[in-house]
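Hi P.,

Sorry for the delay on this. The queue was packed all week, but I finally got your sequence through. Input first:
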Amino acid sequence: MSNGLDQLMFSLMQARLKAQGSDLEFPPDVRAQTAHLMAEADHKMRSARAAYARVSEIHLANEAKRLPTPEGEQ
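Then the structure:
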C-alpha cells in the first residue's frame, strides 16, 4: 500500500478506536443505538483494506508496465 493509503487507513483506525472508547462512556441503551453503525463502519473498513490490497497486488504484478515518470519526480 502506498504511504498515502497507509495514512488514510491509520486515520480511520484512530477514528474507530476513538468512537469505540467514547461508546463505552454511555449506558447499554445508547450503545445499542450505535452498534449497527459501528458494525457497518468496521465492515466498510475491512472491505476498503481488502480492495486496496488487491490494487497493490495488481500494481506489483504489472510492475513492468509502469509508465516512465518525468526526470526529478518520484
